[in-house]
Specification:
With about 675 residues, this protein is mainly β. About 10% of the residues lie in helices and about 35% in strands. The strands form eleven sheets. Strands 1-17-16-15-14 form a five-stranded antiparallel β-sheet. Strands 2-3-4-5-6 form a five-stranded antiparallel β-sheet, with helices on one face. The chain has a five-stranded antiparallel β-sheet with strand order 7-43-44-45-9, with no helix packed on it. Helix 3 (about 35-50) crosses helix 6 (about 100-110).
Length: about 675
Amino acid sequence: MRIKILWAFARLAALLAVLVAVQTFAQDPAASAPGTPQAAGRQIFLTRCASCHGTTGNGGEFAPAITTRIPLRSNDDLIRILHSGLPSSGMPAFPDLVDPDRAGLIAYLRTLRPPDGAEVTQVTVQLEGGGSLTGSTLNRSATGIQLLGDDKKVHLLRKTADGRYRAVTSQQDWPSYNGDTVGYRYSNATQITPANAGRLAPVWINTIRNTRELQCTPVVVDGIMYVTAVNEVYAFDAGSGRSLWHYQRARTQGIGGVAATGANRGVAVAGDQVFLATDNAHLISLNRYTGALGWETEMIDWHKNYNGTGAPLVVDNMVIAGIAGGDDGARGFLAAYDQQTGKEIWRVWTVPAPGEPGSETWTEASLAHPSGATWMTGYYDKESDTLIWPVGNPGPDLIGDQRPGDNLYTDSVIALDPKTGKRKWYFQFTPHDVHDFDAMAPSALIDTDWQGKPRKLLVQANRNGFLYVLDRTDGKFLFGTAYTPKLTWASGLDAQGLPIVVPNMEATREGRLACPWLNGASNWYSSSWNPVTKLYYVQTNDKCGIYTRTDMPFQLGRGYMGGSFSGDPADPGQRILRALDIHTGKAVWQIAQTGDGSSWGGVLSTAGGVVFFSADDGSFSVADARTGKILYTFETNQSPHASPMTYTFDHKQYVAVAAGSDVIAFALP
């Protein structure tokens, strides 16, 4: 395992040295004297960069200004950008540019300055109530300053009537992909209620350029929002949406799988670090105040059909990450890494090797490319110190005759000891899956009464169309029932929770109609458990599909699904938001949406008594959590591919969601 460690404190010191550096270097006549590296660098800039970025680096016809970006990049960052380019933003690569020319160009870039008022400068601001704060401006506007203080932290400041500044931050964060480690997708914020939700309005929008459909859930910690695209992290002022910093590296040439389509679902945050899985199955740590790269770990060689799309999970001193590639035959695993160094602590393979327990549920040949990916974020039960993670489908997805047996531990949830990775228990939802019914639908670790007694539960509305209730202390099946009327591949669940499979429902060469369709009766987008209403809110799809078999031998760089699928041409299907009673599986209320059931928007609920969701028609909507009455709708005019979150900033509750290439924040007036 190749680990590249670039110590964060050294990077910060270098960054601050650049930010604080006096401008004498730019003003020094010797800096551009003939024969100096800067002079040679200037010539390279004029011939290779200025036609896009402008003669002074302050923007041209084809590219934006770089004068405020250069000070926030280390030399290593600039070397990497020059070598690989930024394909997603249109910047070409210059692999032929090597030292000493490259060093001279970087030296010259350091001399470029923005127009007056826009520069990253050292300032001292007077604070409301007395005192002052010194640091470097990351961004400023007529109403405030985002300041990188001498304490190496970002301070968000708003101008007061007397010209001083007051510090603002978030009172309620959304610190991880699900907002918590137990998967509730619930907030105890109460400002937005059924009585006032109709007055909501968008208060800021930040468009992420060069993206098509963001799939991330924003994370907010200490007033800073973190948003991702493939190989990119953006840091925003959560109260205004103004950018603080942006980290980007080139997309991997030749990468396959879902990462190639632009999927990345978010970051994890711990202390002063932000963790991101890159498209080529690397895990990186960034300084959350500056975006400087701390360390980088190659989780596995991406050339073996692996890629990275999921948001990692922080547990104690570890950051835990899975991988994508299950539709390409990549053998799944989950691994824990030391937060400070990126060193691997443990690794667990989701499918056994030949001779290991569970391998008897496969043939030896099928174990060569079994899939079982781990591309969604897992859960952590702190009280029992248990890590719970979903596992994806077996491969090939739609052809099961090459892999007879249950194909453990695909289509399962696995419970692990987070210190060692040792498995405690598992539950398999769909043994011998031939419909791509992976277990990536969100789960909730719920503590509530069950049959009159307190019990620790795991609840999941699985992609296969059944709602499951498990005892999460041992994985025992407690209850299950269909939550969609369009379910034909199985007739029910037996006493152990195993599906009663209907014969002859697998894919054929001519195409087989089965329900639900391959995208599932639900999927990876968020559900929400509300402990006040005791309802489980799930975006569901009442939809069938045609499963078509196509023989696909495993190949590097190719898909391994074993077929294709489409919706039922005779019935487009429908997306329905259901508020489920987990004791009965019945919908207390439901909202049928306009569309064909092919969108990917999730759900959020709050103690204020409202449910937020991205609807199938592209609107962002709010409903009464108890009755399902629609309270507010905003037309984003984007097909939703992400899930909403909420936070309280400067004592005001915000709700934010990614819609297309936009991040939109809503609040009350």
